Amino acid sequence: MVVPHRMSHASSMGSSEQRRQAEREVLSVVDDDKSVSESLPDLLREFGFAARAFSSAQQFLSSGCVDETSCLILDIAMPGMSGPELQQELKRLGKEIPIIFVTARSDETIRAQVLKQGAAAFLLKPFSDSALLAAIKTALHTT
């Protein structure tokens, strides 16, 4: 399970104005792990965001959702195009989407690489809902 516990989501987002702002944000999850791609969008909706899930980088790129995505939550290791490769492809396409990388593998070299390339955050699975929300808030305020 990605998120080991739940906190009070109403208080986690702050005022009702902040929740209305969050509802205008579309977060896309790209992860080949079915449990993540099914559970994470539900958590994001509890936080008040619109959420979409994709099982591969290619599926995300061909979805038509790239331009409406406010923040991308992206796995590092996936079949086909990896998370860092998708990060580079988005840069090549001129798409400035804040990216939060998530991974089960602690690899300091990859962490340093994706952060140097502009990722907003790097979280190790399993991560708490509060760590994810903090990363999202950071990502949405860096653009």
What does this 3D model show about the protein?
There is one protein chain. The chain starts with 8 loop residues before the first helix and ends with a helix. The protein is 44% helix and 17% strand. Helix 3 (34-47) links the parallel strand 1 (26-30) and strand 2. The protein has seven helices and five strands. The chain has 143 residues and is of the alpha/beta class. It has a single domain (24-140), classed as Rossmann fold (3-Layer(aba) Sandwich).
Quick structural summary:
Helices cover 44% and strands 17% of the residues. The chain is α/β, with parallel strands linked by helices.
Strand order of the largest sheet: 2-1-3-4-5
Mean pLDDT: 87
Number of domains: 1
Distance between the termini: 30 Å
Whole-number radius of gyration?
14 Å
CATH topology annotation? Rossmann fold
Poorly predicted regions: 1-13
For the biggest sheet, the summary is: 5 strands, parallel
Secondary structure: helix percent = 40-55%
Which CATH-level-2 architecture? Answer: 3-Layer(aba) Sandwich
CATH superfamily: Response regulator
